[in-house]
User: Fold this.
Amino acid sequence: MTQDIKPRAHLAERAAEMLSRRAPEQQQPPPHAPHMPPPSTVTALQAVPPGALIPMETLRDAGLLSAGMGRRPGRAQEEIALVQHQLLRQADEAPQCRIILVASALPREGRSFMALNLAGGIANRGARSVLLVDADGRASSLSRSLGLAAYGGLRDLVAEPRRRATELLVPTALDRLFILPHGRPVAGEGAPGGTAADAILRLAASLPHHIIILDTPACLSSSDASALAAAAGQAVVVVDAQRTARNEVEAALDVLEACPVLQLLLNRVRFDDGGSFGTADAGAAHAP
Assistant:
């Protein structure tokens, strides 16, 4: 069965129209106090102090799903595992595909939740070492929910191209999982279009055996995802099944067109048992 498809408006026009209809997003505070050394014990925005480690409790508070001792993985974990396998297959076929961008059209579609669980799942299974990069840095970002807002990170690599990335990586309770925080503000940031992408490519070159997962801002509220798409080999676009419109998804795909492999992941799908994906208590995901 076919249907007439109306000509698509220019991306900028569509994005502006959608954003004008939406109220400003309210900032969400981090869910729990971080379990990291207090800021007073470290030099602000410098390298991670020796011995710093993100404990499992903090990872769970930030949204990482875990089955627990003697328990089978839940439905959401099984669905995420299927997505992980698909991403790893792509990474094995093409080196650039080990840089995975996780995006969404709009804020609060479950993008950071998915990025954290994809990274944690791959690391936990021992398949590859994983670096999860906070390329967002906003009020509800991974850096804040993991207690890393005061640490150096991606933006420091942008400002200082010769800086060693390894001194900014934060280890976690999962042996193969590391976090690169967002880092400090950079004067004139965003003016040179590919600066962040160049930093990611340098980072990937210095960690040739790691899977690198980028948690980016929403495509229709920031240009950052578009700038990073050129560096990534594959992108997962998280779509909230309950509220994201088709034209918003299409606009997000347009933003990410520089990335060679684009995949959609349907989030917060409701089932007969009342479960929904995107929270730690139930749900499922689909990646058509």
User: Anything to note?
Assistant: The first strand starts at residue 99 and ends at 104. The chain has a mean pLDDT of 78.
